[in-house]
Amino acid sequence: MTILTETKDGPLILTPEQVEELGAALDELRTRIVADLGDRDREYIYSIIKAQRGFEIAGRGLMYLGFLPPLWLAAVAALSVSKILDNMEIGHNVMHGQYDWMREPDLNSREFEWDTVCPADQWRHSHNYMHHTFTNIHNKDRDIGYGILRMDDAQPWNPLRLGQPLYAFALMMLFEWGVMAHDLEVENIVRGKRSWSDVKQLLRGQWRKAGKQVLKDYLIFPALTGPLFLSTLAGNVTANLVRNVWAYSIIFCGHFPSGVQTFTEEETAEESRGEWYVRQMLGSANITGGKLFHIMSGNLSHQIEHHLFPDVPANRYPEMAPEVRALCEKYGLPYNTGSLSKQVGSVWWKICKLALPPSLVASEPGPGVIVIRQRKASEVGG
């Protein structure tokens, strides 16, 4: 594989040997960090779990005083933080196997269940396997637009795309439900490529998990507050909306801002380890911020590092990031990063722009890095 990136002096050529050197350097970084895992990481995840449970208890308790507007707001804030921590820094990372080395049943990636409507086993398939294996590969990675959005010039346009900003807003508000439906591949059912009979088992799992979540958040806990049922119900709905908007924003900023590259199946066939690393770096983006921001994002603000090392505890990404960035600079690769406002603005601009017919808008700038497959000797000259 050669990789070309346009510079003021002309194209920069990265040879196959350099790609493998880059891969070896990233392998060494991962090996070094994994060898250092221990008490610090154990204490970190337990401190996050303790904080998450504390916020949930506080939020549930304050709902009994929800007749006082300031305390209702405090209850909603506490529940929102609890749900965000559960989904982002705990659930997402635990289910990636980041803490399997601890041999703790409660942190086992195959057993963990989170506080959201999507069954954990379905998420592990659609996210851990499909997305992280085939990151940004058209017709393989269904996270490119989640089946309803046009997020790349290579995706075909049709008149239904004109409503894309509304679809994106709806997905943001109902994000946990969108994640739940992801593994169904509803768009393929509509196109006749998949039948409802193919997804019966998935639907049963979703019915069980979503039913429990709805019962807990929208019936049991509101009922426990007696005359404050409606107040508590409104608070729980609001906390779920806050979590949905936050998770959507962080995830979309890590995958779809300007400069993030997509690939074809031909470009990525029979990848080497180094080539896989390069694709992860080109197909991801980071968000700058402070320590608390990174924790609340599940450290998915370090999306580049997460795609490179999905099973390494996410609290290690901040210390890995400078080395990853230095390698990008050494080999001429872009390191896509920016503030939350910059990345959010870029994502929504792309959503609105790609909703319009291609004839009315300029195409996105060509990729800063072009991955070109070398032809096998047997293919040269026919």
Descriptive report:
The protein has 382 residues and is mainly alpha-helical. Helix content is 56%, strand content 5%. It contains 15 helices and five strands. Strands 2-1-5 form a three-stranded antiparallel β-sheet. The protein has a two-stranded parallel sheet with strand order 3-4. The longest helix has 27 residues, at 229-255.
Write the layout of secondary structure elements.
Elements: E1 2-7, E2 10-14, H1 16-36, H2 39-62, H3 69-94, H4 120-133, H5 164-173, H6 175-182, H7 186-190, H8 200-224, H9 229-255, H10 265-268, H11 273-282, E3 286-287, H12 291-296, H13 303-308, H14 317-331, E4 337-338, H15 340-353, E5 369-372
Parallel strand pairs: 3-4
Antiparallel strand pairs: 1-2, 1-5
Helix pairs in contact: 1-11, 1-14, 2-3, 3-9, 8-9, 9-15
Key descriptive features of the protein:
single chain, 382 residues, mainly alpha, 3-stranded antiparallel sheet, two-stranded parallel ribbon, disordered N terminus, disordered C terminus
Low-confidence stretches: 1-11, 375-382
Order of helices and strands: EEHHHHHHHHHHHEHHHEHE
The N- to C-terminal Cα distance equals: 20 Å
Give me the secondary-structure category: mainly alpha
Q: How many β-strand runs?
A: 5
Number of helices: 15
Strand portion, in percent?
A: under 5%
How would you describe the shape?
globular
- The spatial strand order of the largest sheet comes to 2-1-5
Please compute the radius of gyration using only Cα atoms: 22 Å
